[in-house]
TrEMBL record:
This is Uncharacterized protein. It comes from Araneus ventricosus (Orbweaver spider). One of its GO terms (molecular function) is nucleic acid binding. The lineage of its organism: Eukaryota, Metazoa, Ecdysozoa, Arthropoda, Chelicerata. InterPro entries: RNaseH_sf (IPR036397). Gene3D superfamilies: Ribonuclease H-like superfamily/Ribonuclease H.
Amino acid sequence: MVSSSCMTISILLAKVKNCCKWEVCSNLPYNPDLPPNLGSKHLSGTRFSSNSDAKTAAENWLNGQGRDFYKAGLNKLVLHSDKCLNRFGDYVEK
């Protein structure tokens, strides 16, 4: 679940980066290799009997999100990246 989701996100970000001619900041305020927080409120307290059940639940949650959810996430990524670059890498969310 996590690896396929991260792979999809990585591919999407690579396409956006190439399209917009962005450069990757070497001092990112986050680790792109870590899995995203997939609706912790949605899956909070849920116990899964197997990894495949957890994967299915997360994929169903992701597939159920609309276009606005992903658009908002990308907009936040751009905003946070701009803040990081404008502060020369010295950016921490407060």
